[in-house]
Amino acid sequence: MKTYTNTGNKDTRSGFGAGLTELGKTNENVVALCADLIGSLKMDDFKKNHPERFFQVGIAEANMIGMAAGMTIGGKIPFTGTFANFSTGRVYDQIRQSVAYSDKNVKICASHAGLTLGEDGATHQILEDIGLMKMLPGMTVINTCDYNQTKAATIAIAEHHGPVYLRFGRPKVANFTPEDQTFKIGKAIQLTEGSDVTIVATGHLVWEALEAAKTLNEKGISAEVINIHTIKPLDDQAIIDSVSKTGCVVTAEEHNILGGLGESVARVLALHKPTPQEFVATQDTFGESGTPEQLMEKYGLNANAIINASEKVIKRK
Amino acid sequence: MLKIFTHIYMPNTQQLQDLTTQVRRDILRMVHKVNSGHPGGSLGCADFFVALYQDIMDRKDTFNMDGKDEDLFFLSNGHISPVFYSVLARSGYFPVEELNTFRLINSRLQGHPTTHEGLPGVRVASGSLGQGFSVALGAAQTKKLNGDKHLVYSLHGDGELQEGQNWEGIMYAAGNNVDNIISTIDLNGQQIDGATDVVLPMGSLRAKFEAFGWTVVDIEQGNDIDAVLEGMAKAKSLTGQGKPVCVLLQTIMGNGVDFMMHTHAWHGKAPNDEQLAEGLSQNAETLGDY
């Protein structure tokens, strides 16, 4: 089984910051807006290097999204930065009308997604954002898994015309994808080849899926791990091809079971290849305070949960 | 005939008044045909739109979404789409005959303006209220980044200012010296459920805008084309001085059709056959119906 090396834990939000810094140098049309969270979003470098292209809007997310939409008129490529909760739920109507329906080239970049924000608790954790964003016609939805991939995705979305929701997080997690990767929107990445079960994971759960695959391998179960960084448009074919071999699938995400990656995968399979599926996701609940590890354990979002789901789904074949 | 108005060079008052009267006919006929739409606010803003598109704005002959090196306009209170569509058509953005398709299926003239169907002249969707300020501000910032000296104009309903997002944008604009924007408030004192002073009193908008750091210009006769031209010219002269400019445009909802005036009753109601005939009789066909 192919294995991956963690080159050192890093936060995905810093990957975003590094990508933005790079874009500052290479694409003069890129502008950045932030709603009083420059440090949290790692936008300091961009602000320092390009003060004329950086817009501090204050604690006013609705205005930030609207301004970003307006800034596209005249050729700018705005990247907005705030927490995932304030990037989506708080400004849903602004995104819907001024960005998505108006087909504006705005990149909504959202940190602190999911439970792993930790101690701040449920007001600041959001487990509904993938659903909210993927329902918007024309919106691309990306949830990256590590520092390197987040950096690559940040750079890639500047070249894509149209609204994008880029979701990443706060905790330092394993950094294992190639430093020099080219990010292809909508193209799934097969991380391991397997024959017994397909594990389709996104975001922080991708590394957990690899850890699960190792343990499953020791138990004699061959798992095919697919990194679905793009939830919309979904790489339908990659999923169909994999379950055609394995005959069952586990989806894993740091998101509510309702409206997340799992449901998108279920839709594809229901249409093209009905397949037993288990969902590693939160069960229609809010989060709470705690360390990221405690929360992922309590809400069943780690390698152990993926192992259990895999063993269960294999029995349903 | 119509093309004259596409590119009037320094139009005189009579020409502008004729166009305004024709726009009022267009509004009535559009909403009557589909028995839906918003005639009240549209009629009240006819003079403003004609002044803006025929005199005030420096705009290009062809529509380009990026709008570089020309003035831009954003309609925030999108429900007054009839007046917007009529003036856009009669200013050459799309065929006047297309007004026939207002609110019909497969039309580019959606109930509320949108870029989605590719209608020339529209740069953002509006309808859900309170979002236009922010969009106009963003466009104004991009003009500055591009070294483009042209201005950004926007229009907002007075009731619309009850939406909180406006005040985020109003605060931002003054705090960041966005002085290439002229935001006009249609001060007709009415909203769907009644007078704004009854539904949710907003106090003095002049005092509010000034407290937020804006320069405020009053146009007390918003349905007098000369007064509108004069006020907007004054507003223009106040741009580029470090402060955003707000125009408080006092209009009469339903202006030009006596039984629709001074009431919110015609906010979102179409006239029947008899009412249409009566309304048209008060607005002579000056330039030819579509």
Question: If you had to describe this structure to a student in words, what would you say it looks like?
Answer:
The complex is a heterodimer of chains A (317) and B (290). Chain A is an alpha/beta fold and 317 residues long. Chain A is built from 13 helices and 14 strands. In chain A, strands 3-2-4-5-7-6-12 form a 7-stranded mixed beta sheet, with helices on both faces. The two termini of chain A are 23 Å apart. The model of chain A has no long low-confidence stretch (mean pLDDT 98). Chain B has one domain: 3-Layer(aba) Sandwich (Rossmann fold). In chain B, α6 (132-145) packs parallel to α7 (164-175). The termini of chain B are close together. Residues 1-5 of chain B have low confidence and may be disordered.
Determine the fraction of residues in helical runs of chain A and give it as a percent range: 25-40%
**Strand percent estimate of chain A:** 15-25%
Gross geometry of chain B: globular
CATH topology-level fold name of chain B: Rossmann fold
Largest sheet of chain A: 7 strands, mixed
Task: Tell me roughly what share of residues is in helical segments of chain B.
Answer: 25-40%
Task: Give the largest chain-chain interface (CB within 8 Å).
Answer: A-B, 32 and 39 residues
Index terms:
heterodimer, A: 317 residues, alpha/beta, Rossmann fold, seven-stranded mixed beta sheet, five-stranded mixed beta sheet, globular, B: 290 residues, five-stranded parallel beta sheet, two-stranded antiparallel sheet, 39% helix, disordered N terminus
